Amino acid sequence: xTNREKGYFYEEKATELLxxxxxxxxxxxxxxxxxxxxxIAKKKDLIIFVEVKYRSTNNYGxxxxxxxxxxxxxxxxxxxxxxxxxxxxxxxYRFDLIIFExxxxxxxxxxxxxxxxxx
Length: 119
Description:
This protein is an alpha+beta fold. It has a single domain (about 5-115), classed as Trna Endonuclease, Chain: A, domain 1 (3-Layer(aba) Sandwich), CATH 3.40.1350.10. The protein has two helices and five strands. The protein has helices at about 5-20, 70-85, and strands at about 25-30, 35-45, 45-55, 90-100, 105-110. The protein has a five-stranded mixed beta sheet with strand order 1-2-3-4-5. A hairpin with a 2-residue loop joins strand 2 and strand 3. The protein starts with a helix and ends in an 11-residue tail after the last strand.
């Protein structure tokens, strides 16, 4: 299985997790010139932008470490474009990370606050 195929596989698993928690999937692999967001979901009046990471080993760092400041800025800018393009206006949103490491699944809410990346 290629890395991209693994990515799609774990994005599907994350989608199932979101749906089981009552979220509605709005977008998968949303691309813009600013970057890419793996999953965008909604529950009631909250939109979440989800980064999905998989690691079979920590030889090159943990999945959490793979989401650095540069990646967070790209996710943030892409999310802002999505909100503008969809005319959501003053919508509630947050940024989450779903990690698959070995046999463990971890869902971390609020991985990004605007002031942390200079916005």
